[in-house]
Amino acid sequence: MKVAVAGCCHGALDKMYETLELLQRRHNVRPDLLLCCGDFQAVRNEADLRCMAVPAKYRHMQTFYRYYSGEKKAPVLTVFIGGNHEASNHLQELPYGGGVAPNIYYLGYAGVVRFRGVRIGGISGIFKSHDYRKGHFECPPYNQQTIRSAYHVRNIEVFKLKQLKRPIDIFMSHDWPRSIYHYGNKKQLLKMKSFFRQEVESNTLGSPAASELLQHLKPTYWFSAHLHVKFAAFMQHETSSKEELPKATKFLALDKCLPHRDFLQIIDVEHDPTAGDSLEYDAEWIAVLKATNNLVNVTQSSWNMPEKNGLHAKWDYSVTEEAIKEVLEELNHDLKIPCNFTLTAACYDPSKPQKNMEPVHTINPQTTEFCAQFGLTDINDRIQQAKEEGSGRGECEEEEEEEMDSTGSAEEPSEYNTDNSGLSSFNPDEIMLDEEGGDEDLSTCSVDPSPDHPAEFSTSFSDIRIMPDSMAVSSDDAMDSNTEELEKSGGSKQLEERSSTERPLKRIGGDENGDGGVKKIKRRNQAIYAAEGEEERD
Length: 538
Fold this sequence. Notes:
Blueprint: E1 2-6, H1 13-27, E2 33-36, H2 46-50, H3 64-69, E3 78-80, H4 88-92, E4 98-101, E5 104-106, E6 110-115, E7 118-123, H5 129-132, H6 146-149, H7 155-161, E8 170-173, H8 186-192, H9 197-201, H10 208-217, E9 221-224, E10 231-236, E11 248-253, E12 264-268, E13 279-281, H11 283-291, H12 321-330, H13 365-374, H14 379-389, E14 464-466, H15 475-478, H16 483-496, H17 515-530
Parallel strand pairs: 1-2, 2-3, 3-5, 7-8, 8-9, 9-11, 12-14
Antiparallel strand pairs: 1-12, 4-5, 6-7, 6-13, 10-11
Helix pairs in contact: 11-12
């Protein structure tokens, strides 16, 4: 089947779907599925705009609200993950995933679904070490800290995904897995984005959590966005035994939506021709959710996931075939995801703007139904209960967040170094939405929605890239064999490990720069803001 993969959509749904329709008219190519790698911006109204972590000048209504209201319907089944420019209050209603509009499905904080037999997984948000070990405690109305931390990846989501044993066909993350740039044309990447050089050479660009997942899941395809540049890589994974067949991942990062040429890719994916056309639950994933339900945390407290370190009675939460069979029996072997989307907020009306609309914490009936069906904790209901009890656990604070001590063992080692400096990463919260310069404080944001604000982009077929099933990456793309580049990025040691397809990703356990590395990033940001023609970052 043909799968279209898009980078950062930034709310331009009309343009994205128009491009797909143009592809069909001109070349008789019609995708069966559309995947979006974050920054989807499912903004329903003015209150949603207030929950999107971007400066005021980028807070525009765009066109999602037309699909939310039913005025329009997505012409192709669309599955997306969250990024760092989202209406966080809307997506927070669906922590386990669900429909945000007819024919548009959000995967949740982390999720796995099936379509025509193809197994599709994803994790939403971006990695930030200082929030990684916290629970999902945020809720609207957000303050200047929680409006950002709401989209930061948490260790529990990574832990759940690492319990999966069955093969994954496609996986999506918003930010790139750290180190993936060593498996593609690094020289070309640095030519296009020269300000990445320091972080690439120090191996701090991207997400260490995504890198862990890449190494564990070994999906056939991995798609990302976030950095607004197209980049392909090919990673050959190490095998754990001689009997295990070698696995490889084809990685592709895509640019942001129009007018950029590389925001969309078409690939052919093998599928089950006997499978139906409906989006389906994944039985193993549901079983993992049930097995890890007691680990749900809705506090700001930092804690580590169970590990085989002598401190936990149980550390392996992967599920048995019997547990998967039980899920199938609960569903009477009908895995079809119900089309139970309902409106949970007023829809934007261009004729009646409401600039002072405030966001509220909402319990979505889709989540209520899902949790009741599988015996899971409704995260938002738990947060609401904590607020009502006045315990402060999971409460939405108006004052600045404070780091709390770990609820686990004080000496408990973590899979990721609990020292934040060891997880430092150039993974900016802000990727600006156009090419202009400047910076704005979020505290000065005002709402000025305009569905007609986006520039009139000329839609042409040059915006589409069609790739075969193999999604072949040339030797030029798969490695950077330039000796001078290798010397700059790692000296003689890099020269000894020249072949990228033979070098597995490794977890980075420490940061030699410490606090100094943070200062360097800040100075680099200043240079980026001042650079003409480059995206701004915060």
